Amino acid sequence: MESNRKERIGKVVSNKMEKTVVVQIEDLKRHPMYRKVVTHRVKFKAHDENKECATGDVVRIVETRPLSKDKRWRVAEILRKKEVAEIEPKEVV
């Protein structure tokens, strides 16, 4: 069954709210007058029911019914978790 819901892929920039994450979507667009390529950024608030997302994760969000004043998206899946470098502590002399 085909759904007409919009989907976006973006990066989680904040997860400090309860069951809500802020997802930033970057897009390259050409300026209409100056013809320079500029980065266009848009932020969406998305519902994260199980609080699984962390800052830096790449997620797919899907349009849904209004859940609050600003929330109209929900996290469909986490595509890539943020890579965390494993650093061993150094011995202090």
Describe the structure.
The protein is an all-beta fold and 93 residues long. The protein has one domain (7-80): Beta Barrel (OB fold (Dihydrolipoamide Acetyltransferase, E2P)). The chain contains no helices and 5 strands. The protein is extended.
Question: Briefly, what is this?
Answer:
This protein has strands at residues 7-17, 20-30, 37-47, 58-63, 73-80. The chain is mostly beta strands. The protein is extended and about 60 Å long.
Q: Work out the radius of gyration.
A: 17 Å
Q: Might you state the CATH topology name?
A: OB fold (Dihydrolipoamide Acetyltransferase, E2P)
Helix segment tally: 0
CATH class: Mainly Beta
Q: How would a textbook summarize the main sheet?
A: 5 strands, mixed, barrel
Please report the total strand number as a whole number.
5
- Strands of the widest sheet, in order across it, are 1-2-3-5-4
Distance between the termini: 64 Å
Low-confidence segments: none
Share of residues in helices: under 10%
CATH A-level architecture: Beta Barrel
Q: Encode the helix/strand succession as letters.
A: EEEEE
Report strand %: over 45%
What keywords describe this structure?
5 strands; mainly beta; 93 residues; OB fold (Dihydrolipoamide Acetyltransferase, E2P); 5-stranded mixed beta barrel
What layout of secondary structure does this protein have?
Blueprint: E1 7-17, E2 20-30, E3 37-47, E4 58-63, E5 73-80
Parallel strand pairs: 3-5
Antiparallel strand pairs: 1-2, 1-4, 2-3, 4-5
